[in-house]
Specification:
The chain is mainly α. It contains 10 helices and no strands. The longest helix is centred in the middle third of the chain and has 33 residues.
Length: 270
């Protein structure tokens, strides 16, 4: 098992480098280019293609002193960590098939990319989520594990419906508050990317596990908001009521818990 963990971890670091590459280019609406570049658009040498190796070998900065942020090695570690967790969960499941495991690892990379872009840019991009939904539909259609094709489609529709209502409610609330305050407010509680992300979650999980995933997401989102408010208060910084907070990571965590640990989570909550 140790060898499997090491191999998956190394693959995760490499794919984390790909995630970093996509997280640099996709939000800027440009095609991914290789080799990776420093913030000043200088090509990075091979020893700096990964954030971890760039930091280890003293290649963090370009000749013009443009430095890579800590996001690069942390993203690679995040991707590798998610892939290892998926591996360990799969090894404990006697019903796991090699094909399903491959789908799981693909989801880990997609989720890492979604988390990074949402935290940095408050965006969940269609260019990421639409192919992800297609992969989830293929997964449900060709594997005999988890949600059936019918359950996956119902889960996707359920997730879309619930969060689309919340999305519209956020717009209505923002409109009312704009009228009350006499100034335009552009931030909303849920973006349409969140609607599409929970649709992706429903396609992965099926409708029944999705219900618990949405419950977990809401609880984690509320806790995250409370922690944010308390931390802002402790450092003496004022909080604006309409400050945008990324919701995608909470959806991802709720989905991962129900994807990888559904039996344990269900036992705890019931």
């Amino acid at each position: 098992m140790l060898i499997q963990v090491l191999l998956v971890g190394l693959l995760g670091l490499v794919l984390g480098g790909v995630v970093n590459l996509l997280a640099d280019d996709l939000p800027a609406r440009r095609s991914p280019h290789f080799p990776p570049r420093y913030p000043d658009d200088t090509p990075r040498p091979p020893t700096a293609w990964l954030g971890i190796t760039a930091f280890l070998f003293g290649k963090r900065s370009s000749p013009g002193d443009a430095k890579l942020s800590w996001r690069y090695p942390l993203t690679e570690l995040l991707t590798a960590g998610l892939m290892i967790i998926a591996l360990l969960s799969a090894l404990d499941d006697p019903n796991m098939t090699p094909l399903q495991f491959i789908f799981w690892e693909i989801y880990m990379v997609i989720f890492a990319l979604i988390i990074v872009i949402d935290i940095e840019h408050r965006l969940i991009l269609f260019v990421v989520i639409i192919p992800a939904c297609v992969i989830a539909v293929i997964d449900a259609a060709v594997t005999n594990y988890g949600a059936t094709a019918g359950d996956a489609l119902i889960g996707g529709l359920l997730g879309f419906g619930v969060f689309f209502v919340l999305y519209l409610g956020g717009f209505a609330f923002t409109y009312v508050m704009s009228q009350v305050r006499g100034r335009k407010i552009t931030e909303v509680a849920f973006g349409y990317g969140d609607v599409m992300l929970i649709t992706f979650s429903g396609l992965i999980l099926g409708w029944q596990p999705l219900l618990l995933a949405m419950f977990i997401t809401v609880v984690l989102g509320a806790l995250g908001a409370m922690i944010y408010l308390i931390s802002r208060s402790l450092i003496g910084s004022r909080y604006s009521m309409f400050t945008a907070l990324p919701y995608g990571p909470y959806i991802v965590v709720g989905t991962l818990l129900m994807l990888l640990f559904a039996t344990e989570i269900t036992a705890i909550l019931t």
